[in-house]
Amino acid sequence: MLEQLQRHWPRAAGSLVILAFFVAHAAQFHRWDFVERMESIAYDARLLFTMPETVDDRIVIVDIDEKSLQSEGRWPWSRAKMAKLMDRLFGQYEVALVGFDVVFAEPEEVSGLQVLEALRADVPSEVAGRIETLRSSLDHDAAFARSMESRPVILGYFFTDPDEAAQAPRIGMLPPPVFVAGQFAGRGIDFLKAAGYGANLPALQGNALGAGHFLTTPDGDGVVRRVPMLYEFEGSYYESLSLAVARHILGVDRLRPGYPPESRAGKNYSGMEWIEVGDRKVPVDRHVRTLIPFRGKQGSFPYVSATDVLQGSADASVLRGRVVLVGPTAKGLFDLRATPVQPNYPGVEVHANLIAGIVDDNIKQNPAYTLGAEVVLLVISGLIMAIVLPILSPLWATGATLLLLAGMIGVNLYIWESGNFVFPLASGLLAVLAMFLFNMTYGYFFEQRGKRQLAGLFGQYVPPELVDEMSDHPEQISMVSESREMTVLFSDVRGFTTISEGLEPRELSELMNAFLTPMTKVIHQHRGTIDKYMGDAIMAFWGAPLHDPDHARHALEAALEMIVQLDNLQADFRDRGWPEIHIGVGLNSGSMSVGNMGSEFRMAYTVLGDAVNLGSRLEGLTKQYGVQVIVNETTAAAVPDYLYRELDRVRVKGKDVPVTIFEPLGPRDAVDKAARDELKVYREALRLYRAQNWDIAEIQFLNLQQRAPERLLYQIYAERIAHYRESPPPADWDGVFTHMTK
Predict the structure, then answer these.
(1) DSSP string covering 7-30, please?
(2) Based on CB atoms within 10 Å of each CB, which residue in 83, 253, 318, 513 is the most buried?
(3) What does the alpha-carbon distance between residue 649 and residue 634 come to, in Å, rounded to a whole number?
(4) Residue 254: Cβ within 10 Å count
(5) What do you get for the CA distance between the two ends of the chain, in Å?
């Protein structure tokens, strides 16, 4: 492995640079907007994948919708109508609590009260008394305030950001803060700060049970995923609407800040990680914001049209004993938010999700110490990728990367579901993918250069598939001559001289192309290397340039398929007016010298040796024995699951050592019974022949000849027996026949 790493050090170094990029982001040395955006997308995907998508009927939204505006008039409605809404909700429908996702910051000016006040100084006392009587009936703000008295009502209001300080209003009356100025001094908590506010009329706020701000803070992509639980204004801290409603549902008077043990986030870390609401914990981030625990798309809580409540026609069973949030969803009232679950999501349902999450103690945590864990995991996974990827093949590298990505996603989802933690995901996935793509890109260009070099050296000999394989194992490739166990193939067209004399040069060229192309494809498909074409002859070998332990099998399979392909070509040749072509194929396995050989003028990658010469001789014998393929005993022994017919023991021209030659019949389980029976009789006849039992051997061969008159082999042995009767071989005859020609 060390040697491979040294060879691939540029890839490892590049991977470490990529890792440093993402570690810098995770450690917050520099935040990359792209990674932040991908992290948001990863968060949204997990949220959508795991949302329960059920309806929570504990919280009901009284909806100021299009139907209500058409029936009751445009918003804002009269405070008298709002007082009627309160009386209906608490009196007729007996709701448990009402929260408002709207603010009542300005006095009502449509009741005529201001006109009466102006007339009061200029009228007689008896008329002034009548005006005083009318005044109480026209003071709708007071009526609305009285409708809240002694009832659990939580009002809503808003803050303005510091960048709007020049125009920041201070309207209405803020509720008492939940944390007073100075309570978090020295803690270094990064609260969101307000420059101004728009709160409710003092009369309304004075009669309400409490109030909370209904601000949502979109992330950098404009999507609302978090709501600030506390806002800082002039040193004091004010709770959100959802926190105020949940606190009163749970009967909690005071909130308590939650700080982690120093060991979890470092001794210098003093940030708030949660807010305690009784025995519930509301997790918060460094800006004291809480992730919204969306149940699903709009409609995860029951909706009741506000006009149905005002008219008394709403379903009482939906409202009785429930917490009610009053808020708008009508498009013209501009309370729709872009959220992960829906691009136009009602702000009032955002608060409903948060209230349910606080009450159920089911809000995702994203504490500060996940930053350190993210850095550690990034470093570990990045180092693994930097070490492993360069030494793996593309296939294994892809598999390892996919496995690592799947593991990271699986563990992250497990932590998300079982631990309710939001652990960073995108930075790790992007780092792994970036390192994988870098390694694949580097490897692609590097290997392509190597492949071009290999293609230049071996492209004329081997198919592109083997060039690809050779590039994966360049250490196995050498042009230097060496000795290897290999198999060589020679094929030749029978009677080619006669065929060539009967065709025009153009036709002869077309015929040879039509013949050599499919033969070459067969050799390539079986991992063979074309050595050369010699007119009508083909020379090929197996076992180089790539080592092939099954070289004999691949060569034999190629030889037999060449015969099949040639038979398929005959019909096309006849249609084109060409003569039929028949070939002989000789195969020999043995030790050969292979490498780049030649002269200073021309070099060729080829094989030499006695085993090569014998292969050529075997091809020449195919015509004499009337067979299409001959293999030597070494090839036959290397592929024992094929059935063979032993043709002869021969001495070929130029060799003194006899060899046994065979005709392959095919895989043992593919040879039919008739052929097996014929082979059994033939083997017995051959045994008798070598035992010089001429009479019985002759009878056997004559019977075989009648059984298969097309087989030249039986005629050859019958003629030999007739010859040996007249000129008997010596007593020590070994059954070997010596061929005097090639």
Answers:
(1) HTHHHHHHHHHHHHHHHHHHTTSS
(2) 83
(3) 13
(4) 10
(5) 53
How far are the Cα atoms of 135, 432, 433 from residue 380, in angstroms, in the given order? 75, 11, 15
- Which among 593, 628, 637, 630 is positioned nearest to 615, based on CA atoms? 630
| Radius of gyration in angstroms for the set of CA atoms belonging to the chain, rounded to a whole number | 47
Could you tell me which of 360, 352, 371 has the C-alpha nearest to residue 420? 360
For residues 320 and 48, what is the distance between their CA atoms, to the nearest angstrom?
31
- What single-letter DSSP state applies at residue 88? I
Residue 576 phi, psi dihedral angles, 5° rounding: -90, 5
Q: What does the DSSP assignment read for 673-698?
A: HHHHHHHHHHHHHHHHHHTT-HHHHH
Across 519-547, b (16+ Cβ under 10 Å) vs e yields bbebbbebbbbbbeeeebbbbbbbbbbbe
Q: How many helices (H) and strands (E) does the chain have?
A: 26, 28
CA distance 330 to 346: 9
Closest C-alpha among 499, 380, 460 to residue 26: 380
Spatial CA neighbour of 471 closest among 412, 407, 546: 546
Residue 432 CB coordination number (10 Å): 25
Indicate the DSSP class of residue 227.
E
Find tokens 């329960």 and name the residue: 52
- Region for residue 88 given its phi and psi (left: phi exceeds 0; alpha: psi -120 to 50; beta: otherwise): alpha
Handedness of CA 189, 194, 198, 201 (dihedral sign): positive
**Cis status of the peptide bond prior to 579, with omega within 30 of 0:** no
Q: Nearest 5°: phi and psi at 224?
A: -90, 115
pLDDT on residue 81: 94
Stretches in the chain below the pLDDT threshold 70: 1-10, 110-138, 164-167, 262-270, 368-369, 443-481, 600-603, 654, 740-742
C-beta atoms surrounding 265 within 10 Å: 19
Domains and CATH numbers, the chain: 2-31+370-451 (no CATH), 59-106+145-360 (no CATH), 473-668 (3.30.70.1230), 672-742 (no CATH)
How do residues 162-190 score in pLDDT, each as one tens digit?
Answer: 776 556 788 999 999 999 988 888 777 88
Q: What is the C-alpha separation between 80 and 140, in angstroms, rounded?
A: 5
Tokens in use for 180? 């007073």
CA 318 to chain centre: 45
Q: How far, in Å, CA of 232 to CA of 397, rounded? A: 52
| Alpha carbon distance 64, 411 (integer Å) | 43
